[in-house]
Amino acid sequence: GEEDDLKLTHECKELLLSLPKERGWRTPYIYRFQGFWCQPKEIQAILSFRKHFQARNGDVVLATVPKSGTTWLKALVFAILNRNLYPLNSNSHPLLVSNPHDLVPFLEYKIYANNQIPDLSKFPEPGIFATHVPFAAVKESINKSSCKIVYICRNPFDTFISSWIFCSKIGAENFPSLSIEEAFNMYCNGTIGFGPFWEHMLGYWKESQERPEKVLFLKYEDLKGDITFHLNKLAKFLGCPFSMEEQKQGIVEEVAKLCSFENLKNLEVNKTGKAIMNFENRHLFRKGEIGDWVNYLSPSMVEQLKQVMEEKLGGSGLEF
Ligand code: A3P
């Protein structure tokens, strides 16, 4: 069966037998594991990372719902934290020759994937890692150190469209894609990788309100709206604010430009390479716009998702 093909550990196979499952977006099944929906391979890697990963002081974890701006955030944080090591205007900057996912690895897709248990003490400091798991599943790995979390989310309408299109592009050839109506209903029911999306957002949102020095909560739309302001905020949060001198020299704008959608999309490495599993990097750069959902969703779908958002996020202070 599917589980055998994936070379899962005995522990993981046993666990899967006990979990509720639903049809997946690009795998036959996703399973409800500790309150969120995941693919078998992800569950195996998450079990391992929860057992072995302890962030060091100074490390940074980037957390996102898939398709919310992960690639962008990885590029920005990498560029900011390494700006002395790698000057932004250098024509050999790592972001010009590597995809952001190669520079900032996912805990569950890279570091702890395929039963690896790497020795992270040799990893360059500060370590920058990424994850899609909800806050409750990552907190034990980060709370014992001064590691900080940067979270980015995006309005659910665009995130849904981005997810649906991405899954239909990267899904296995012999695996039928979901129709937009099927995918939409699953999204609204919370049955999507790392969903329900509202629980994911609220977990990090609440933590950012209670411990603003530990968790920075960003929105894709806000970054698009005023990148300079938000890069200053981000650098300050990370403990390496842009000096007056750097601001005068236009360094903040250089970070924004280097990491911009247009710049990254057109690099050779992002047109032809593969950074995560077998996905082609080019699928990570689609439109990069706000509001593309108007081209796909019917009025009744819009109404349905609005209601879900009102019901689940209303009163939390988190708005889109
Ligand atoms: P669209 O599908 O709406 O174009 P993730 O990186 O979390 O997978 O999110 C992917 C979304 O972010 C895609 O949205 C993609 O085009 C957009 N994106 C990728 N790189 C970006 C960048 N540098 N700036 C802004 N948006 C970017």
TrEMBL record:
Domain named Sulfotransferase: residues: 59-317
Recorded superkingdom: Eukaryota
Gene Ontology MF terms: sulfotransferase activity
Keyword annotations of the record: Transferase
SUPFAM superfamilies named among the record's database cross-references: P-loop containing nucleoside triphosphate hydrolases
Signal sequence coordinates: none
EC numbers, comma separated: 2.8.2.-
PANTHER family from the UniProt entry: SULFOTRANSFERASE SULT
Family: Belongs to the sulfotransferase 1 family.
Name of this chain's protein: Sulfotransferase
